[in-house]
Write a structure and sequence with these properties.
It contains 10 helices and no strands. It is mostly helical and 251 residues long. Helix 6 packs antiparallel against helix 9. The longest helix has 32 residues.
């Protein structure tokens, strides 16, 4: 496991060296979202009985930040290595495809958790949010970070240049996270859009994560857990096969 530990250290050091950009900036962005939306809608919207809209926003913003930064970590690292050519220094050592995969995924999850925890901690200055089910919150945070880390790895391997990766992020990742119930409950949507929301896997990650805070959710947390676990398994299998075959990595 020496190779795994070394690559993991390299990936974690990579984002930590510029932590003001990779950790602090997303926390500030989420805080701005909270200040704007809570100022406009607090007192006018109540999603769950007895839960203020500001409190409702906090878990969603924390999870959204976690997901987006987990994706950004693995995808940006992979595309930078490919464009600059230093991917060869990762491919030459006797690393198994599993070690390669898990080093990128764990680093992505760690960055996502750091940003998510930072968002949650900073936003507590506005309103205290209890966590009656921390196990549920942690499970969905880990699986969500793993899913986006795997998706970022797949996108980074697929993309040949930064423009392609930016397109994937702007037209897939950002819309799916924003339309996953971060700022609203899907029960407030018309029936058609409720059905569409149930096709969005990001919705299950955020809804299950929010259950850990409010003991309430739009769908049963067990259903969300099954969907999220299946997505993680499918994306992990896909990423592992791409790495094992060296698709767009060795040539």
């Amino acid at each position: 496991m020496t190779g795994f530990r070394t690559l993991l250290y390299k990936e974690m050091l990579r984002f930590w060296k510029v932590s003001f950009q990779t950790v602090a900036a997303p926390i500030i962005t989420a805080l701005l979202y909270l200040l704007v939306f809570s100022h406009v809608l607090a007192g006018r919207v109540e999603v769950y009985p007895g839960v203020s809209y500001t409190a409702f926003l906090i878990p969603g913003l924390a999870m959204m930040s976690l997901l987006q930064n987990a994706f950004a970590n693995s995808s940006s690292s992979m595309i930078q290595s490919k464009v600059t050519g230093n991917i060869i220094f990762v491919l030459l050592p006797p690393l198994s495809h599993a070690e390669f995969y898990w080093a990128y995924i764990v680093a992505a999850v760690v960055r996502g958790l750091m940003v998510g925890l930072g968002v949650f901690s900073v936003t507590l200055v506005t309103v205290a949010v209890p966590v009656p089910h921390p196990f549920w919150a942690l499970v969905f945070a880990l699986l969500g970070g793993g899913i986006l880390g795997a998706l970022g790895l797949i996108a980074g391997i697929w993309a040949d240049k930064f423009d392609q990766l930016a397109t994937f992020q702007n037209f897939v990742i950002v819309p799916l996270t924003f339309l996953a119930g971060v700022f609203y409950s899907i029960h407030s949507l018309p029936p058609f859009w409720q059905a569409v929301s149930h096709l969005n896997p990001f919705f299950y990650m955020i809804d299950g994560f929010r259950f850990g805070f409010f003991n309430a959710s739009d769908v049963p947390p067990t259903t969300s857990l099954v969907v999220v676990a299946v997505c993680f398994a499918a994306l992990s299998f896909t990423a592992l096969q791409m790495i094992k075959r060296g698709w767009k990595l060795r040539h």
